[in-house]
Structures are given as structure tokens and as C-alpha cells.
């Protein structure tokens, strides 16, 4: 009997050891978030820096977003592991102060649905979090108490936020860190000139240069190898808009790179944008809230 128990304990320890080794605990996660990136636009645009980054990890070109295919509900879903049915953000005009018609299924002490930033901070107050954005409504669904740094730029400006994000990473290089680095300019160009217009493609190629500059700085600072990067978007578009349920609007690129992540892999298995926050919690070995519906796609790991 003692030998049996000893063997069983050894197997359990071996199982835990193998799984810990397969998915190293994250040191930092950087979400590169661009608004309105269609699969067709992503494939057509010349984006060598983003392509090189994603070639080192896992890329899905068949990830589905949530309905409606509009901005605020979708980014909220990325960052809360849930759909509008759970978090209650159903349109771009959502504000907690307006007493939304559909209340969230759970709330924090200030009445906000729990985001990935909130869950991480509750688990470990030493986690450093930052939110960089240039569309004012974007931050409304989140409790600002969860952020160590917030930076909003007007008029679709975004380059300064890439510099701020790098400085934040450098300052907190010894601390677990999560950064959301977002720009809306690609979406606004799509609305103005149409999705897949030359101007839209140019906007993707323009931001790729900034992504490249950001990555070079991280490599020089010896932060790159120990960082998980995620490439995220909220929806695609047709002509001058989005919000429907077409393939062009509802299927988007999604990618992840970093320690423990499979390398050079394209995934065709079902994936959804609500899985983003669940993956981040998995990387930090934090249990997700019971009200979340996101799942961790295990096929992204080595």
C-alpha cells in the first residue's frame, strides 16, 4: 500500500512539473491592439514587423468575435473573458453612470464587471498594469483603480503611447506587468475611406513601422525574450462600416507569442475573442472568475 501511494504521489508531482515547464509563468504581457483589422486587410498589407513577430508564435485567421461586431462590446469581451450577455456592454455608448438596461451578471465593489486587470490585481497587488488608448469611450467599462498608468491621446494620435508603454515596461522590468496598447486610427480610416481602400491598407503599414520600432527597443533592453505578446483586434468591416454578421466583420486575426507558446503555428481550431483574458490569467496562473465564459485554447502551447 505504501509503495502504491508513493508511486501515485510521484506521478502527481511529475504531472505538475511537466505542466509547469510547458507553460512558464508570465513575466509580462503586451497586448498590441489595433481597431478594425480585417483578415483580408491583415493579409494584404505589407507588415513585415508584425509578421515576423507572429511567425515566432501562434496565429489564427479564423477567430470569431462577439456580436454585435462593434468596438466597445468587442474590446470589453477581449478584456473580461465574457460576452455582452455577461458584461452588459452592448453598444459604443455604454457608460456605467447611465444605468445600462442589461446589468452585468457580477460586479466588483465599485459596480464594474471584473476585467483581467482587476482579477490580476486582486490576486497580486504587485502586478503592474497600463492602459494606452486614443478613443475616449474605450476605458468606460473598466475600474480605473486597476491601472497603474493610463494614457489617452486625442485626434487618433498613438505614437507617443508606444513610447510611454516602453518606458513603463522598462521601469517595471522586475515586476509582473500587463499592458494594453491600443489605437483606433485604423478603424477610423476604414470608416472614412472604406475597408480595403488604399488608405486603409496604408494605415496598417504605417502602424507596423511603430510596432517594429517598439520591438527593437524591447530587444535592446533585453525585455523581448521574456515577454508574451498578443495581437488583437475587434472586428473587420465592409465598405465604410461594420456591425453586421458577415464573415468580413465577424472573423478576425488573433495571435500570441512568447515563452511556452508554440512556434510558427497557424491554428484552424475554433477560437473566440472572449478567450483572450482567459489566456492571460492562465499565463499568470490565476484562476478566472466563475462569471467568465472564456476558455484557454490549449493548442496554443508547445
Describe this structure in words.
The protein is α/β, with parallel strands linked by helices and 302 residues long. It contains eleven helices and eight strands. 38% of the residues lie in helices and 16% in strands. The chain has an eight-stranded mixed beta sheet with strand order 4-3-5-1-6-7-2-8.
Task: Label this structure with key terms.
alpha/beta, globular, 8-stranded mixed beta sheet
Task: Summarize this entry quickly.
The chain is α/β, with parallel strands linked by helices and 302 residues long.
- Helix-residue proportion: 25-40%
Principal-axes geometry comes out as: globular
Helix tally equals 11
Q: For the CA atoms, what is the radius of gyration?
A: 19 Å
**Series of secondary-structure elements, N-terminal to C-terminal:** HEHHEHHHEEHEHHEHEEH
Main beta sheet, described? 8 strands, mixed
Tell me what portion of residues adopts beta-strand conformation: 15-25%
Structural class: alpha/beta
Strand elements, count: 8
Rounded to the nearest angstrom, the distance between the terminal CA atoms is 36 Å
Average the pLDDT over all residues and give the rounded result. Answer: 93
> Strand order of the main beta sheet, please?
4-3-5-1-6-7-2-8
Low-confidence region ranges? 12-21
Amino acid at each position: 500500500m505504501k509503495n502504491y501511494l508513493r508511486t501515485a504521489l510521484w506521478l502527481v508531482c511529475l504531472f505538475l512539473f511537466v505542466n509547469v515547464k510547458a507553460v512558464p509563468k508570465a513575466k509580462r504581457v503586451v497586448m498590441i491592439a489595433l481597431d478594425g483589422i480585417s483578415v483580408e486587410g491583415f493579409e494584404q498589407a505589407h507588415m513585415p514587423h508584425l509578421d515576423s513577430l507572429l511567425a515566432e508564435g501562434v496565429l489564427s485567421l479564423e477567430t470569431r468575435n462577439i456580436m454585435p461586431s462593434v468596438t466597445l462590446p468587442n474590446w470589453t469581451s477581449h478584456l473580461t473573458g465574457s460576452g455582452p450577455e455577461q458584461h452588459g456592454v452592448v453598444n459604443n455608448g455604454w457608460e456605467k453612470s447611465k444605468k445600462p438596461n442589461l446589468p452585468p451578471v457580477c460586479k466588483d465593489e465599485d459596480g464594474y464587471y471584473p476585467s483581467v486587470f482587476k482579477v490580476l490585481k486582486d490576486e497580486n497587488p504587485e502586478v503592474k498594469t497600463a492602459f494606452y488608448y486614443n478613443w475616449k469611450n474605450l476605458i468606460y467599462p473598466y475600474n480605473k483603480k486597476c491601472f497603474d498608468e493610463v494614457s489617452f491621446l486625442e485626434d487618433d494620435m498613438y505614437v507617443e503611447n508606444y513610447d510611454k508603454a516602453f518606458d513603463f515596461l522598462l521601469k517595471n522590468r522586475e515586476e509582473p506587468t500587463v499592458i494594453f496598447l491600443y489605437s483606433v486610427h485604423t478603424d477610423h480610416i476604414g470608416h472614412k475611406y472604406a475597408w480595403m481602400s488604399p488608405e486603409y491598407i496604408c494605415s496598417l503599414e504605417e502602424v507596423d513601422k511603430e510596432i517594429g520600432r517598439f520591438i527593437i527597443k524591447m530587444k535592446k533592453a533585453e525585455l523581448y525574450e521574456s515577454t508574451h505578446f498578443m495581437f488583437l483586434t475587434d472586428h473587420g468591416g465592409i465598405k465604410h462600416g461594420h456591425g453586421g454578421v458577415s464573415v468580413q466583420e465577424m472573423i478576425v486575426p488573433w495571435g500570441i507569442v512568447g515563452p511556452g507558446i508554440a512556434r510558427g503555428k497557424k491554428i484552424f481550431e475554433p477560437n473566440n475573442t472572449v478567450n483572450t483574458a482567459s489566456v492571460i490569467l492562465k499565463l499568470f496562473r490565476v484562476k478566472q472568475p466563475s462569471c467568465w465564459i472564456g476558455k484557454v485554447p490549449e493548442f496554443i502551447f508547445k
